[in-house]
């Protein structure tokens, strides 16, 4: 799975950056806002999701942060910039880590934001090394989520904060059609499975975290898959464009384009959900 995730983000790095900017994650809108209709810009929305998670998790300014699944560094640059945090970012993709370091240099925060190709479940960082463990849309790629929560607890200092934003699935049993939709999303997005937001809360508590709280942001982020936001249609200029991409990068790249309609259907039907979680390592 790690190899597949690494390859997926290596071959789609420029596609995500071209279409979604520096944030490889959902945007956050107020009720009634829609991209392309009333001026709600997609880049402003992805920036806002970072701010919303900072506020929800009460991330302290100046914290030492581990960014799990850092992508090309968008959230980390906000943490290292306006918040004055020191950030270590980890990703399975060497290309993402290199691009994130370039962006940190350009933003003038390379002294506070560094990015590495590392497995989030075996980073080698010592116990109690961080004030905050931050994970935006990375838990879906981890085959062992209880191991993530245990590892996050180990690396946090007593009183430290866990801040997570994640795709999830509706809690409870799914019918056959819903299961098939989830299977297709997982296949095209290179993910082993989904957990419900409620299951994430249970896993965090079982790992030893206290003060575990979650909020459902499904309605606020669903517009991320509106064609006017994702802008994937600009690549769909006929079969020759898609064929050339597949020849150049391999057929796996086509999953990037298939995911849009599937995710939109998932949010429209309530099968796919999205939420944020915060928790604290006990002690002070």
From TrEMBL:
UniProt KW keywords: Methyltransferase, S-adenosyl-L-methionine, Transferase
Name assigned to this protein: Methyltransferase domain-containing protein
Region SAM motif II, annotated ranges: 128-136
Organism expressing this protein natively: Streptacidiphilus cavernicola
Region (SAM motif III): 155-164
Database matches in InterPro entries: Erg6_SMT_methyltransf, MeTfrase_dom, Methyltransf_11, PiNMT-like, SAM-dependent_MTases_sf
Record has Lyase as a keyword: no
UniProt xrefs under Pfam families: Methyltransf_11
GO terms under biological process: methylation
Positions of the UniProt region annotated as SAM motif I: 65-74
Leader sequence residues: none
GO molecular function: methyltransferase activity
The family this protein is said to belong to: Belongs to the class I-like SAM-binding methyltransferase superfamily. gTMT family.
Ranges for domain Polyketide synthase-like methyltransferase: 31-282
């Amino acid at each position: 799975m790690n190899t597949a995730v690494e390859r997926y983000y290596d071959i789609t790095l420029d596609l995500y950056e071209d279409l979604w900017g520096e944030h490889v994650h959902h945007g956050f809108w107020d009720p009634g806002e829609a991209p392309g209709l009333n001026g709600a810009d997609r880049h402003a929305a992805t920036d806002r999701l970072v701010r919303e998670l900072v506020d929800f998790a009460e991330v302290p300014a100046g914290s030492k942060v581990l960014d799990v699944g850092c992508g090309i560094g968008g959230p980390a640059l906000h943490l290292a910039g306006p918040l004055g945090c020191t950030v270590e970012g980890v990703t399975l993709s060497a290309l993402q880590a290199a691009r994130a370091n370039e962006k940190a240099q350009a933003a003038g925060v390379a002294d506070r934001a560094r990015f590495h190709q590392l497995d989030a479940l075996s980073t080698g960082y010592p116990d109690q090394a961080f004030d905050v463990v931050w994970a935006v849309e990375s838990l879906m790629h981890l085959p062992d989520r209880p191991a993530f929560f245990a590892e996050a607890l180990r690396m946090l200092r007593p009183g430290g904060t866990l801040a997570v934003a994640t795709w999830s699935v509706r809690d409870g049993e799914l019918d056959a059609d819903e299961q098939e939709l989830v299977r297709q999303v997982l296949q095209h997005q290179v993910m082993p499975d989904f957990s419900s937001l409620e299951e994430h809360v249970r896993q965090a508590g079982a790992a030893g975290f206290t003060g575990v709280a979650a909020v459902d942001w499904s309605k606020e982020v669903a517009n991320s898959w509106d064609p006017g936001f994702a802008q994937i249609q600009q690549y769909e200029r006929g079969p020759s464009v898609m064929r050339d991409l597949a020849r150049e990068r391999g057929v796996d790249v086509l999953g990037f384009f298939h995911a849009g309609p599937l995710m939109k259907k998932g949010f429209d039907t309530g099968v796919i959900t999205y939420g944020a979680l915060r928790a604290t390592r006990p002690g002070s």
